[in-house]
Amino acid sequence: MRFFRRLCLRLFLLFLLLALLSVVLVALLRVFDPPVWAWQLGRELSPPVAYPAKVQHRWVGIDRISPRMQLAVIASEDQRYPLHRGLDLEAIQDALDEREKRGRVRGASTITQQTAKNLFLWPDKSLFRKGLEAWFAIWLELLLDKQRILELYLNIVEFGPGIYGVEAASQRYFGKAAAALHDWEAARLAAVLPNPYRFSVARPSPYILQRGRWIRRQMRQLGQGYLKQLD
């Protein structure tokens, strides 16, 4: 019994230490741009077939990313982004209802959750991984503001094999800075984010062209003023 109590105590202390470390890592993002992140490391340690020998990435601040691009990813990925605190409970409930009615699983991850996954975690659909994703998402929302989380997301998300961040993607596909993106360009970039290995910005399929048009309609409905809610 004494050994068992000691083991439980040590496990509990280890859990507290890891929890504290995770909070510290999130807090550091208030002032530091991450030089590397878990998703990128995973790609490089176990590269997909199409992964290039040299990745492309350039960090830019949120003020150097076109508001159209900011609105495009919100319209495409998480239209309630300004309103929730990391977890969109309404979207989660809708996804559960759809699975119950149609037997189909629909994603309900927020931009904050996707940022947490890309920064700290590994590609997996287990409940344990999703639980960690929720943990980090909550702390991201508690310690960072919405604009900073969106800045992180747009700088680390992969838009194509080895093309990380909107600046590298904009330069690669459109030959311009992310600050100069137009509506259709921003929508095209946002359209491939569910799977940048299956879908291509440079060679868009009919589905991507259709999805890009849908994203532009959503952008018009939300309006550019929607971004003011992130302040």
Explain how this protein is built:
It is built from 10 helices and 3 strands. 58% of the residues lie in helices and 3% in strands. The N and C termini lie far apart (55 Å). The protein has a 3-stranded mixed sheet with strand order 1-3-2, with helices on one face. The model has no long low-confidence stretch (mean pLDDT 91). The chain has helices at 2-28, 38-45, 67-77, 89-102, 111-120, 127-143, 146-156, 166-174, 183-191, 206-222, and strands spanning 56-57, 158-160, 163-164. It has a single domain (33-47, 57-230), classed as Penicillin binding protein transpeptidase fold, CATH 1.10.3810.10. The protein is mainly alpha-helical and 231 residues long. It is globular and about 65 Å long.
Compute the number of helices: 10
Rounded Rg: 19 Å
Low-confidence stretches: none
Order of helices and strands: HHEHHHHHEEHHH
Number of domain units: 1
Profile the largest sheet. 3 strands, mixed
Q: Give the tally of β-strands.
A: 3
At the third CATH level, what is the topology name?
A: Penicillin binding protein transpeptidase fold
CATH superfamily: Biosynthetic peptidoglycan transglycosylase-like
Approximate strand percentage: under 5%
**What is the correct CATH architecture?**
Orthogonal Bundle
Q: Any idea what the shape is?
A: globular
Distance between termini? 55 Å
Let me know the average pLDDT: 91
Fraction of helical residues: 55-70%
CATH class: Mainly Alpha
